[in-house]
Amino acid sequence: MRDIDALICVFLSSYVIDLLIDGLNAARAYFIISRHSEQISHRVLTELERGVTCFAARGAYTGEQKEVLLCVVSRMEAVPLKQIVAEVDPAAFVIATNVHEALGEGFKLNKVTKKTGGK
Known about the structure:
By secondary structure, the chain is of the alpha+beta class. It has three helices and four strands, in the order αβαββαβ.
């Protein structure tokens, strides 16, 4: 029983440390491969108001041309994104990865001041 308690304690400690280091604003990147990429991207753009990047891809085994969608969302938006994909294409192939830093529209942007000749 002590072993289980120790494992739970280690897991919770690492989770809290990750939250402290990455902050609550950590994001997730989703790569989505689907035959219905246009419908998925449209719903993400309109319902989540998040940008989507489309990459042209080719399946190595089949040689079939496909689109790969890339969408970076906050942790809170991850569940709605997965719901959209599941509703549009339950057979979609989805890869999720942690994003340690996302800068730009919709995400925190650290303002860097330019030095201009001592002014």
